[in-house]
Structure formats: C-alpha cells, structure tokens
Amino acid sequence: MPLETASDGLDLLAMHDAGGAVDAAAARIRAEAIRERLAPSLSGLPLPLREAIEGVIGEIARVAAEAEAARQAAVETRRERGDWLQIDPLRHMPEDRRTPPPAPPARFEVHAADPDFVGYGWHTAEGRGGESWRWSGTAPAASVVIPDLGPGTVELELDLERPFRTPFTEDALVVLANGEPLELSFTPREPHRGVFSALWAGSESPGTNLGLVLLSPLVSDSTGRDTRQLGIGIWRASARRIAADPE
C-alpha cells in the first residue's frame, strides 16, 4: 500500500508540466505574430531564403520563450515551498511597486571577442593587433543580442565585413530586429567592409532585449587556404537610445 503523506496542496510535478505547455504555447504565439508582421516581405523572397528566415523566426520565438521562462524560474528558485505557502501577495505588492527597477543603460557596445558578446551561429573570435572579429557560417543565420535600453527609438551600428575580400552588394545582407527587417544605410571603409546603421523603433514590451539576426550568403576561399564556408564577419555592434516615447 503506498505511503500517504500530508499534502500542502502544491503539486509541483503538475506545475512543471503546465509550465512546459505554457512555454510551448508562448513560443508558438510569438512565432505566429512575427510571421504575420513579416508576411509582405517574405512573400517576395526566393524560396531558400524564405525557408531559412522561417526557421530563424521559430528559433527566435523559442529562445525568447525560454529566456522568459528561465527568468521566472530563477526568481522562483529563491523561495522554498514554505515561503510560497506563506506569501501574502497583497502585503508584498505595495512595497514592490514602490521600489523602481534599475534604469537601463542608454548605450551599449560590444566587440567580437568581448565576454559580453552574446549570439548564435558564429565561429570562435579571431584577432590581431588588439582588434577582434567573428565569422558567421556555423548555422543558416547568425544573431547578436542587444540588452534592453529602455523605451524609445534606438540607433544601431554594425561594423561588418564580407569574407575573402568579397565586395558588398545590394543583396549581400539582411538584418532582422526581433523578426522585422531593418532599413540599412551603408558607410564603406573598403569595398568588403563598412558600417551598417539603422533605426529601430523599440519594443512594445518593457524590458525586452533586442535580437538581431544577420542573413548573408556563404562564400568559399578561391585560393583554398581557408576550407570554411563563411558568411558575414562582425567586428563591433553598438546601440544608442536617441529618443524616448512621449508619456
């Protein structure tokens, strides 16, 4: 006969299963919203690029849902079962509301080899003479995460390079900001390297990081010295809040 134990009414296993279902639903909803916003732009793209972007959209939605779940889990793990049973939300809520969160930074800059560089789809950072860069090509697309800078318009700059001194062309780069394509301006330093700038209107959800996804064709080394197929190279990414939303 199974041993009966006293129950405090909290079924933690059921709560975990429910949390997994909520995460999956959140990722699906995020992906559907991004696809709906991008539908006019995606319809005119070649099928291989459209399929790659569809995959990236799903990955962005999944990562965003997992990041939010991880944040909530980190908060919850600070409390034990007894603490949860004794929490009086009405007693805690006024005090929490009186304590404002720390203000987000107005500017962020990261270089390829910095510890703060967070992204996906990149080779290990390379460098010379105190400078560093990374090549994409380990995945169909590469990403860079920019932390939340608060409400308002954000000016973005990306110092980028094409591999093997391949010149930039009009169709050589697409950048998505949280799933939406950016209108890019290019300031060349050399035919194969330059600074891309754009304005991003900001997120409707406070505290949301910006995920930049970079799509660029892979290029092979015609000399055969480098056997990798490489996409875009990144030296630096920066973001600066230039306007706040009116209250």
Automatic annotation (TrEMBL):
Superkingdom in the source lineage: Bacteria
Protein name per its UniProtKB record: Uncharacterized protein
Organism of this sequence: Muricoccus roseus
